Fold this sequence. Notes:
single chain, mainly alpha, Four Helix Bundle (Hemerythrin (Met), subunit A), two-stranded antiparallel sheet, 8 helices, 2 strands, globular
Amino acid sequence: MKSISALLAFAAMLSAQDQVANPLVATSRAMFGISKNDVLGSVDKIPANLWSFQPTTEVRTVGQLFAHIADGQYEFCGVAAEGKPLSKDIEQTAKSRDDIVAALNRAFAYCDSVYAMTTDAKAAERVKFFGMDITRLGALDFNIAHNMEHYGNLVTYMRLNKIVPPSSAPRTPAPAATKK
């Protein structure tokens, strides 16, 4: 049932115009939206007192994970937009929850703007990416994979603290249409 709901949500996210004009970018944008919603939904679910939670000293805290995800938006979407990663050093500089959340929102907005200006033709252009030759769309898709990799970390942190992750939370059904 969850996979059907996810597919319906995915289909709803794709606009008909984008599918026709830029179907590759539209599909990637929809997948990015899922990753963005899962990460931002986690911000809403994890209380401030758990931002310093760290299961072991070898891994990032909750706050560091969110800051790292924010940095990734500039790194990967920067490659797609400008042919090179951008560095904001959010993980090194933003320390408070408010600073990290603001930076994360700006970072996702940056990627949203990259998607808005990317056509399928532009997405097929080759750029350098960690010494490899990839497409701009490949960099955007790598960002989605990176988001979901660290969302997986956040899911574990939430589960350890008895929090239901956004992607597992029950969905509220749409209100039924009233008959006149």
